[in-house]
Amino acid sequence: MIENIVSIIRECGTILLSPPSVKVNNKNQNPKDLVTSCDLKIQEILKEKLTALLPGASFLGEEGNEHGSKKGYCFVCDPIDGTVNFVKNYRWSCISVALLKDGKPQIGVIFNPFADELFTAEKNKGAFCNGKPIHTSEAPLSFSLAAFGTGSYDMDLTWKLAAAYCERSLDIRRSGAGALDLCNVACGRTGIFWELSLKPWDFAAGALIVEEAGGLIKNYDGSPLTDYFAVQSIFALANPKIPILKP
Questions:
Q1: Of 208, 179, 236, the residue nearest 104 (C-alpha)
Q2: pTM of the predicted model as reported, rounded to 2 decimal places
Q3: What is the pLDDT of residue 90?
Q4: 110, 133, 156: which is the final residue of a domain?
């Protein structure tokens, strides 16, 4: 199954690298919430080919009206995570696919074609980048990079957290692609990533990759993540020594 998912995602990656003419629209009249013709094309391919792999599986994607199902198998997909980066040719975007069973991720695949990095994980089988095992960092916060995401929500707390982590960490980063930020925690580049309002397609695959690499996924209150179909405040921690700060 995972090899077939990887093949489909790599096919979609060619669209990001050599896109046709890209049409850009705003979603919900929000000037910062962009969707492109490539988002729509990739999601169309993902839905068609992934559900053909597993007849009867439901589908939840960022750009559609499907709701997915907590019962049985469900593909949760982001056709382009980092759409604004893609529109501005910032070259830090990815395709993210998770396969959930009864609401829990079993497979996670994230592909950044610009860096040619393919992150994969299967439940209880470890995490990998381009086929090589990856592991989270054991460094304390004081010797770790801290990464975060932003949006038009909870901005006061977001920036308070950014200031607090900037003071206590080695430095902070913001990439604009939450799925890739989760992968950076998984492969030891960063010690923590947080965002206060991530959608399921943003974190379902990356959360599994982090956990299979030895990291922790928690809510802001420190509780384990339980609902992969809800908007969540995600804190990905490389190791138990990294704290969730309360500024």
A1: 208
A2: 0.96
A3: 95
A4: 133
